[in-house]
Amino acid sequence: MTDWLGLEGKTVIVTGGSSGIGAAIVEELIHNGANVVNGDLKEGDFKDPKLIYVATDVTDTDAVEKLAATAEEINGEIWGVVNNAGINKPRVLVDPKAPHGKYELDVPTFEQIFSVNVKSVFLVSQAVVRRMIKQGHGVVVNMSSEAGLEGSVGQSVYAASKGAINGFTRSWAKELGKYHIRVVGVAPGIMEATGLRTPSYEEALAYTRDTTVEAIRAGYSSTSTTPLGRSGKLSEVADLVNYFLSNRASYITGVTTNVAGGKSRG
């Protein structure tokens, strides 16, 4: 294996690395020779000698500090962190058909989404960047979403949370550049199915869009709004994340890259 990316032996933290896009990122990092620390609520199926699992509630300061300390202990520094952990619960702002009903946005749902999707990125990044400043380098990759760039019917709070992440990316890049720390974002669009696309998620999304679950599923497979005519592969997102973590991307910071097959304004 040629170490073209130069990630061999580097230590990278991935939050939410047990499933979905996070798991794909973890596996590609391992393939490229990195030491990976996965911070998630549950351990994933993938195992490797270079992969360490740390049970982590990413909204808890003490748990996040333990995650960062564990990563630092491997070889004395943290090369990069991928803020991937997140949740999504489709809701409409107002539901005229069922005011205050199941799929109308409420305060607990709002607070939960922002806690997991935004607060966690702040906590994890702060714990890791404290160490990166001391070591004089580092890379922060924030996982956003096409919804955060373009908006999305039935997913306004999720989109807003990812929009906040985009703001972190731009601002932290300006703050941290003087410490030789890069901050970049990756915004996937319609991707191949993962375990996160549950029946309850599909039911909620269908309701908020006044359509059926069958139509939602057909939309994933037809991808008529995507110029490339297909859903994205998780490996395609993982490839870009690995590239951004490498010194091959040494002059890229402060941007969020859309990985959506050309889809926009959809």
From TrEMBL:
Residues of the signal peptide = none
- Spell out the molecular function terms from Gene Ontology: oxidoreductase activity, acting on the CH-OH group of donors, NAD or NADP as acceptor; quinone binding
GO-annotated biological processes: bile acid metabolic process; fatty acid biosynthetic process
Q: Does the keyword section mention Protein biosynthesis?
A: no
Domain Ketoreductase, residue spans: 10-193
NCBIfam families registered for this protein in UniProt: PRK06171.1
Q: What's the protein name? A: SDR family oxidoreductase
